[in-house]
Specification:
It contains 4 helices and 5 strands. The chain has helices at residues 3-12, 53-63, 93-103, 118-121, and strands at 23-31, 36-40, 71-80, 108-111, 114-117. The protein starts with a helix and ends in a 9-residue tail after the last helix. Helix 3 links the parallel strand 3 and strand 4 (108-111). It has 130 residues and is α+β, with helices and mostly antiparallel strands. The radius of gyration is 14 Å and the shape is globular. Strands 2-1-3-4-5 form a 5-stranded mixed β-sheet. Tetrahydrodeoxyuridine binds next to strand 1 and helix 2.
Length: 130
């Protein structure tokens, strides 16, 4: 399920800018209208400035006019640069918060060989309003 989306997440990993961690992550975000937005991690010598692949993909989608609730699924692939992902790369806590706010609890999260829903990955989450 979502093999094509995962293929795109793996493909965009090649563009990751990760000279500090040497850990390359790719994300492919599927909007309900069928558009796919890809992202990779973009690190910085001032380490906290670095951006995760998932939030780069969401940023591209929002800049393109998409908004909260417009998304169906996101595939994430991560592994040391130069290696092929062979295990799930779970999204970090900060990304989970963004995935939940913009994707909602029913957003499908495709990790290696399993499809999760955001409700499973971030239960009882913070929100300003429902
Ligand atoms: N990274 C992501 O791109 N997504 C995540 O959900 C977790 C971590 C990146 C950040 C950093 O560039 C590298 O992986 C190692 O932490």
């Amino acid at each position: 399920m979502y093999e094509e989306l995962m293929r795109k997440a793996c493909e965009v990993r090649a563009n990751a800018y990760c000279p500090y961690s040497h850990f390359a992550v790719g994300a492919a975000l599927l909007a309900k209208d069928g558009t796919v937005y890809t992202g990779c991690n973009v690190e910085n010598g001032s380490y906290p400035v670095g951006m995760c692949a998932e939030r780069v993909a969401f940023g591209k989608a929002i800049a393109d006019g998409k908004t909260r609730g417009d998304f169906e699924a996101i595939a994430i692939a991560g592994a040391p640069a130069g290696e092929s992902p062979d295990a799930p790369c779970y999204p970090c806590g900060m990304c989970r918060q963004v995935l939940m706010e913009l994707g909602g609890g029913e957003l499908k999260v495709v990790l290696h060989d399993r499809v999760y829903r955001m409700n499973e990955l971030l239960p009882c989450c913070f929100a300003l309003s429902t």
